[in-house]
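pls ignore typos typing on phone
zinc ion + seq
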Amino acid sequence: MLEVRGKRYPLAAAKDYLQATLADPRLNGRQVRIEGVEKRDGTLLVEKFYTVKDGRLYRVRYYCETCHIAYLQPGLCYCCQQPTELQELPLSDTDDDTMADP
Ligand SMILES: [Zn+2]
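k done
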């Protein structure tokens, strides 16, 4: 659920990994920037999602420090089965980043 100026929007995501990220309790109460479209039923369909710190946009990803594998969504590393860390990367520095999509 997203609250904007007193109005509450149920959130839906265009992609499964976005849905999983939006549901991550570690992001509760954080300042975020969401790009999406409001559907006719009032649901906000999220297409892009960033966290905001000091006015800069950060992309959220999940990372296994042990295996050095990045994931788009929270959960266990498929290699070592350990929980992945939430990481926030400044948007401009991640252009040629590679991602594993489990
Ligand atoms: Zn791992």
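Helices lie at 16-22. The beta strands are 2-4, 7-9, 11-13, 32-38, 44-53, 56-64, 69-71, 85-90. more later
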